[in-house]
# Entry
Amino acid sequence: MDSFKIRPQPLSFFIKHYVWAAAAALLLIPGGLLVLMQTQVLEFALAAWAVAVILLSAALIHTHLHQRAYLTLAGEELIYEFGILDHHRVAAPINKITDVGLDASWFERLIGACTLKVNTAGGTGYEILAEDFPRREVDVLYAELMRLMRKTPGSLPDELAKK
# Structure
């Protein structure tokens, strides 16, 4: 079986973590214009606009950097790599996996994202908790994990095996 990678879905991550930044920016931009019209003080308007740009830029940059996380099914191992400054790599051998779960809130179902939870023998809690991944691709990964755990014949679809 060929390995493949799945990357997180940026829209889900951005909305779950930074919807407040977008809302604040949407309030600061017209707020700065209103201050400028009423007080004729350009510095206050520029400060409000600068804060809005900084908030949105930081949120978009962090969302983009979150795309460095990925799930890989390679051979007999499921690997989850994540982290921006502190890089983490969690590997779960297929023969040690005892439980695989998929969770999706109403919002995640709406945009086609989900959370993959993987538990291995001897561990406490979930060793892999991968949030904001595309549901369609995770469903294929889930089926392949179940097949490998049960040692039944089958393979990945060609379009995912090439990733």
Q: What stands out?
A: Residues 9 and 133 are 5 Å apart (CA to CA).
